[in-house]
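Reopening: peptide-methionine (R)-S-oxide reductase still failing for me.
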Amino acid sequence: MPRTEEEWRVRLSPEEFHVLREAGTERPWTGEYVDTKTAGVYHCRACGLELFRSDAKFDSHCGWPSFDDAIPGAVKEIPDRTLGMLRTEIRCARCDSHLGHVFEGEGFTPKDTRHCVNSLSIRLEPKEG
Ligand SMILES: [Zn+2]
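Support: Ran it again with your exact input. Result attached.
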């Protein structure tokens, strides 16, 4: 596991490094997993930890992959006061890489939670068979 930002920089593409390690945001509708319906598990693109299952993914029409639940213990939440508003940032619990933000009370699904995640932060491992 890399311990410094320089070690991360050589392991990740420039785009991945910007999102994962500098809390960047990919442009909406540009990520590879926005409309993906494939069954499987989404892993942290930096360290490989399992983060989200495909059965929690739903169409939010916000332009980023959205999940109404995370694998227990895989994601940590941090208050984020940038951009003049209070949001909740989500990061990988193991490697501290930025994933996106989590929103509640929007009414999309019965769980009423939207993990809004950059495609560049995750990698889908399709279910076999
Ligand atoms: Zn990670």
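The pocket of zinc ion is lined by residues 44, 46-47, 49, 92, 94-95, 97 (CB under 6 Å). If you still see a failure, please send the error message rather than a screenshot.
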